[in-house]
Design goal:
The structure is a homodimer.
Chain A lengths: L1 H9 L6 H7 L3 E6 L4 E3 L7 E7 L1 E7 L5 E8 L3 E2 L2 H6 L6 E4 L3 E7 H10 L2 H26 L2 H11 L9 H8 L3 H16 L1
Antiparallel strand pairs in A: 1-8, 2-7, 3-6, 3-8, 4-5, 4-7
Helix pairs in contact in A: 7-8
């Protein structure tokens, strides 16, 4: 399971074999069935989770019972309620599995230990968070300035690799659009591509 | 000017005098008059900016000409169009000075050089970005789930130190509320405190 994690880390920094051996015992592994919860709102998010196989989503539920998807995470992605993890206060997000999933998880204490044991991991997380900030900034702006069609096409481009694995109603929830809107846009683009 | 920057960095990591001397030449300093632009949308954001004195804001302007404030930055804060800085694509944010301001600025090349020259800076930025991600997550949620009053009180608490320095209509723009709403909430709280 560590191959996926190490491949992701080595996409950003160099790791020695010795460093890899120091990293391994700081993680625990876990398997999730489809629809199984990794985290429920109101719990404390005790671990950062790295997906080695499968697909997860994080989402919150508003007062009217509507789900709003915050993030999808598949092979090579991290997922958590980051605020809850760092502050050890209650989570506002739920995280559950869309497919059968395998993950590696690290506790807050081991996360702090990780960057002390392997200082290069500070650089890995610096680059990871930097990319994440940029994505969030643009998503926030996109949500207020783009049309439904622009939003969907942007999503389809960015998530091309796993687009077929995410049910349409979940993409709608992520983009804040009605499922029918997504269907309409997809029909339009399928017929365009056929020309 | 470097005292403010080094104090901020040393709040998160230890720096030796030698490391400080390596950091200094990677920055340039600049002064801004009130209302002067540091960055305009459609330009490339060439530098990350650290405020040593004064107050800046970043904002975008929608199709109807309305300003939406993204961030305030005063002594000890970083500000940029981070996406534009990292990708060197066009900025979507404007940044200008609310007060007379003094800043230290670092180019993308020097920013990369900085973490190579002083590896501990990876840790500094890792912690900085980690905090920033958490703030953004909660702001995004707050914007959809909180009432106007909750939003204002949260802002007033978080920005207590500089609340008096930010004009009321700019706070309204940051929170996505009408200026009259802010006035109403403030009147209510002032009269409560008087009881």
């Amino acid at each position: 399971m560590f191959e996926v994690l190490f491949a992701h880390i080595e996409g950003k920094i160099h790791l020695t074999d010795q460093e890899k051996e120091r990293i391994k015992p700081l993680f625990i592994s876990r398997k999730l069935r489809r629809r199984q919860y990794l985290l429920q709102a109101e719990e404390i998010c005790t671990h950062l989770t790295f997906v080695t196989k499968g697909l997860l989503r994080s989402y919150n539920v508003d007062d009217k019972g509507n789900e709003h998807i915050n993030q999808f995470a598949w092979e090579g992605w991290w997922i958590s309620d980051f605020y809850s993890f760092l502050t050890q206060e209650k989570a506002i997000f739920n995280i559950d599995a869309i497919e059968e999933t395998e993950v590696l998880m690290i506790s807050l204490q081991n996360y702090e230990e990780l960057t002390v044991q392997v200082p290069a991991m500070d650089r890995y997380f610096r680059i990871l968070y930097q990319n994440s900030l940029v994505t969030k900034d643009r998503r926030l702006m996109s949500s207020t300035t783009h049309t439904a069609e622009e939003k969907y096409l942007q999503f389809a481009k960015r998530y091309a690799q796993i687009l077929q694995r995410i049910p349409q109603h979940l993409i709608a929830s992520y983009l804040g659009l009605a499922p029918e809107t997504i269907s309409r846009i997809r029909r339009k683009w399928v017929s365009k591509e056929a020309i």
